[in-house]
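lol forgot to send this yesterday, sorry. struct tokens for the thing we talked abt
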């Protein structure tokens, strides 16, 4: 099993949108897929239609190891795609992981048993440089980082890289990609044409700025489901194949 995280210390850059679309593609290609929503806002759970059928279980207690993941796991309406939904009890995930003992490897330990049932686990992360992020870095094989082609967004990505460097995390591949690309903007075009050095290990595929991505909330579905022939859907499809090429599932 491979574990991939969608992470950035910046919010609103497309972590959730991408995680949901990648999970959907993985499942469509019949990989047994689990998305673990680690963000207390629960946007990924919402998009995948599993935010309301949570019969009193608290996602946060899962981190403490007080309840088996299997109890919280939900099937989605798509074959091969399950979700561990988030709720507001995830808001102090750091504290809960700490209480459970085991330090920054605790999340990795919680994920390990998924290997029996899944080929791919995706983590949709909240925007933070907290101990939760460290646990994610320890648990993931790949960290996919959406970056908007602006100087500030690149700077935030550089801060993530510096932080990871400082932590001496082993075996983590950090893979950025551009999201919300608007080719009417000169800066965006410049960054696509002459890729900043920071993006050199990045994916070639970029996701355009698209109203169809915003419409995921109306449809509560990945873009490929309700607008399959649009540039955004095609871009997510291409991104999936590039991701798959890296993962070698
Ligand atoms: N490529 C895109 N084009 C247009 N809107 C986008 C795109 N990617 C994300 N968004 C929108 O931007 C907002 C933030 O995206 P989201 O995936 O929730 O970011 P994050 O998880 O990083 O906070 C959402 O309203 C989403 O619909
Ligand atoms: Mg998000």
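and heres what i got for the seq, position by position
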């Amino acid at each position: 099993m491979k574990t991939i995280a969608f992470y950035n210390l910046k919010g609103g850059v497309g972590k959730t949108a991408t995680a949901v679309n990648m999970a959907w593609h993985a499942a469509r290609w019949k990989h047994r897929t689990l998305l673990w929503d680690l963000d207390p806002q629960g946007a990924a759970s919402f998009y995948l239609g599993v935010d309301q059928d949570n019969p009193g279980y608290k996602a946060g207690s899962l981190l403490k190891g007080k309840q088996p993941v299997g109890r919280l796991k939900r099937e989605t309406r798509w074959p091969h795609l399950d979700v561990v939904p988030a709720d507001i009890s995830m808001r102090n995930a750091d504290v809960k992981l700490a209480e459970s003992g085991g330090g920054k490897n605790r999340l990795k330990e919680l994920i390990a048993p998924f290997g029996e049932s899944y080929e791919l686990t995706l983590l949709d992360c909240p925007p933070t440089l907290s101990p939760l992020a460290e646990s994610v870095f320890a648990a993931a094989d790949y960290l996919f980082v959406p970056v908007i082609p602006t100087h500030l967004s690149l700077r935030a990505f550089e801060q993530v890289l510096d932080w990871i460097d400082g932590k001496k995390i082993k075996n983590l591949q950090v893979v950025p990609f551009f999201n919300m690309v608007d080719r009417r903007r000169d800066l965006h075009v410049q960054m696509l044409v002459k890729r900043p050095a920071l993006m050199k290990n990045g994916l070639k595929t970029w996701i355009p700025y698209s109203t169809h991505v915003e419409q995921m909330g109306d449809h509560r579905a990945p873009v490929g489901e309700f607008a399959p022939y649009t540039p955004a859907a095609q871009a997510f499809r291409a991104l999936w194949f590039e991701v798959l090429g890296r993962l070698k599932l």
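Residues 11-17, 43, 179-180, 207, 209-210, 213-214, 216 surround adenosine-5'-diphosphate (ligand 1) (CB under 6 Å). anyway ping me if u want another try
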